[in-house]
Structures are given as C-alpha cells and as structure tokens.
Amino acid sequence: MNNYIESLYWRYATKKYDPNKKITPTDLTTLKEAVRLSVSSLGLQPYKVIIVEDAEIRKQLKPVAFNQNGITDASHVFVFASEINVGKKHIDAYVNNIITTREITRETVTPFIKAMEGFIGAQDETSKSFWAAKQAYLAMSSLITTAAILKIDATPMEGFNKVEFDKILGLEAMGLTASVVATVGYRHEEDEFQHMKKVRKSEEELFITI
Ligand SMILES: Cc1cc2nc3c(=O)[nH]c(=O)nc-3n(C[C@H](O)[C@H](O)[C@H](O)COP(=O)(O)O)c2cc1C
C-alpha cells in the first residue's frame, strides 16, 4: 500500500485529544498552505478560515459544539467561514489578484469576469450561500488529508451551533458565517475510536464504471 493510502487508513475522526501536544509552527504553516491551495469553484475562495488558538474563546465555543473534546483539547480549531453574500466586491478582489499575480491586463480576463458575474448574478442569496459553503468544505477536506499525511489528527465537525459560533467569533460583522469546523492536534491514547476498523462502502458499492 502506498504511503498516501496508509495515511488515510491511519486517520480517523478523533474524539479525544491529548491537550499537552501542540502542532509545531512548521506543520501549522504546511496545514495553512494546504488550505490556501485548495481548489474552489471559479478559484474564488469565497470563505475565510479563522484559526482559534485562544483558550478563553475555545471555552465559550465548546458548549455550543456539543461539548466536543477537540474544541478545547485539540492543538488548533479551524473555523471555515463562508462569505454571506458573494458579489462584485469578491469578484473585483479576485480579478485584481489574477491581474497582479499573472502580470496581465484586465482586458485579457474580461470574458472570465463576465462569466463570473453571470454565474454569481444568476443566483439568489440562499443559493449563493450554499455554493460558498460547499467551497469551504473543500478547503476543510484539504486540511484533513494534509494533516493525515503529516500524522496529525483531525476531526471534521458539523456538530456545532452556527448562530452561536457566528456570535462568539463576530463573523457577521466580517460578512461571514461559520460553515464547517475542523480540530487538529494529537489523539489521546485513551481515545477508543483509534482502534476501530474503518467502515466504508466496498469498491463495488461505491463505483459505477460505465
Ligand atoms: C462534514 C462533516 C462533519 C462531521 N461532523 C462531525 C462532528 O461534529 N463530530 C464528530 O465526532 N465527527 C464528525 N464527522 C466525522 C465523521 O463522522 C467521520 O468522518 C465518518 O464517520 C468516517 O469516519 P472516520 O473519519 O473516522 O474514518 C464529520 C465529518 C464530516 C465530513
């Protein structure tokens, strides 16, 4: 088995973290880079990622996240917060980034700008917020798999109260709303879940090759 697949077998949604083990600054940089390099529709990255280190804030978040252990005991908490109302402002910022990064003129990207405006403009607010949240999930997935490769434990989490997270983290004022969370750190030796076999659909059940 190759190392990548081995890492995916090694990882599991960690339920109990060792509160004494912290991620090194180098590993944290790698995890952030993996999140930054995530794919997203149009490349727009309609989200921000709040990395919560502060113990006080994490204490406040725990009861509104079903008291999940990782919120306080993992090394870091990543909150993937999607943009509330993706629009012109986000497209402009992205276009300016493309122009500067690739050293090209605005005219070169005019058809792409029109396509983005058409795609975004055709959606109502609800549909845009679903779309933005889906992109945030992809970034979360990048974090989880990269963590596994680094032998860092992680837990994707939907088990939290989004309204309360938004309040505690002051997300609305930033035009954001919490979509999904991931805790990262190191498994506690007492976490029973690390010994459980992976449960997944078989290849035959999962794939339809035509
Ligand atoms: C979007 C998403 C949300 C999840 N939310 C939680 C959660 O709140 N708490 C938890 O313990 N596990 C959560 N999980 C973990 C899944 O239950 C777990 O990934 C799945 O059962 C497969 O097990 P494994 O990850 O250990 O291989 C979540 C997973 C995903 C992808």
UniProtKB/TrEMBL annotation:
Cofactor(s) the record lists: FMN
Keyword line: Flavoprotein, FMN, NADP, Oxidoreductase
Domain Nitroreductase, first and last residues per copy: 9-186
CDD domains recorded: NfsB-like
Pfam family, one: Nitroreductase
Gene3D superfamilies given in the database record: NADH Oxidase
InterPro entries (alphabetical): NfsB-like, Nitroreductase, Nitroreductase-like
PANTHER family (UniProt xref): NAD(P)H NITROREDUCTASE YDGI-RELATED, NITROREDUCTASE
Family: Belongs to the nitroreductase family.
Listed name of the protein: NAD(P)H-dependent oxidoreductase
Biological source species: Flavobacterium litorale
